[in-house]
Amino acid sequence: MYRANEKRYDTMPYRRSGRSGLMLPALSLGMWHNFGSVDVYKNSKSMLEYAFDKGITHFDLANNYGPEPGSAESVLGRVMKDSLSPYRDELIISTKAGYGMWPGPYGDLGSKKYLVASLDQSLKRMGLDYVDIFYHHRPDPDTPLEETMLTLDLLVKQGKALYVGISNYDAEQTKDAVAILREMKTPFVIHQFRYNMMDRWSEKALLPVLENEGIGGIAFSPLEQGLLTERYIDGIPKDSRMAREHFLTSERLTEDYLKSIKVLQQVAYGRGQSVAQMALAWLLKDPRVTSVLIGASSTHQLEDSLKTLDYLSFSDEELKLLDQLFS
């Protein structure tokens, strides 16, 4: 029988999401891959329990995570039933809707019809009465923003979500969303956006908006699909995403990239970290980043990511060098 580690909060820092009352662990667990119906349930369960035992209290999902779509939520529901349901009030569980989930005009984007149905389905799969955060996963170019934001407000009023967020919105779209939700006094607390050393569009545009508006930020793809690790320094491993052309192509493996990653390796080793650990720490240096989403395929990989928290500070010289590499 599973019993939570009594010291689970001893080493995990928690950070406030903007100017809200919500606090998230510095590292959150993303369930995009490795938690679907095609994966080994015992391993998925072990990772979720291990993460919780180490203070990772936030599990991030979406309606289409798997594979198959929806199955990551079903796996979480099974784990909740098997072991984690006694700790529901210690967990932050988020899900999203905005990408294609079922056939026809009502299974995609940002209509009220889609978002209400999607969250109802998500709650059923997870066996939950509510989620802590419900996101609109991406902007809808055709549905009026007011309709989408009013639906987020409705879902909070119905008790199906405690807080709402958005993902993949640019700076101007975020300003517009803030204005609508603030007028309704909807608890809009977080924006999930792509951010890492190699992808820094948000620094000039989005992050200042989040700071000014009091909205938290949570970064996804912090390791740029594995490019911000040492995985490709000596070539393309047969079991890698790049070998499978899975969200990452061999065209990214340029001479400039290899030179940069070798410099990163030297800096990281000088800090007593791996490149991946340093890349995560680099994101957490910014107080506007409430949390960083990490993925994992094993408890060992989670353990390795958690070592990031041992050393989060950077010298001015380190920051200058990293800026020169990837600005």
Short note summarizing the structure:
With about 325 residues, this protein is α/β, with parallel strands linked by helices.
Number of strands: 10
CATH topology: TIM Barrel
Query: Any low-confidence stretches, pLDDT <50, length ≥5?
Result: none
Shape: globular
| Domain tally | 1
Radius of gyration from CA coordinates: 19 Å
Name of the top-level CATH class? Alpha Beta
Number of helices: 10
Q: What is the topology, as strand order, of the major beta sheet?
A: 3-4-5-6-7-8-9-10
User: What's the overall average pLDDT, rounded?
Assistant: 95
What is the H-and-E element order? EEEHEHEHEHEHEHEHHEHH
Largest beta-sheet details: 8 strands, parallel, barrel
CATH superfamily name?
A: NADP-dependent oxidoreductase domain
Helix content: 25-40%
Span of the ends, CA to CA: 50 Å
Given the helix and strand composition, which structural class is it?
A: alpha/beta
- How much strand? 15-25%
In terms of topology, how is this protein built?
Blueprint: E1 14-16, E2 23-25, E3 27-30, H1 41-53, E4 58-60, H2 71-84, E5 92-97, H3 112-126, E6 131-136, H4 145-157, E7 161-167, H5 171-183, E8 188-194, H6 206-213, E9 216-220, H7 255-271, H8 275-284, E10 289-294, H9 299-306, H10 316-326
Parallel strand pairs: 3-4, 3-10, 4-5, 5-6, 6-7, 7-8, 8-9, 9-10
Antiparallel strand pairs: 1-2
Helix pairs in contact: 1-2, 2-3, 4-5, 5-6
Name a few traits of the molecule:
alpha/beta, 327 residues, TIM Barrel, 37% helix, 15% strand, eight-stranded parallel β-barrel, single chain
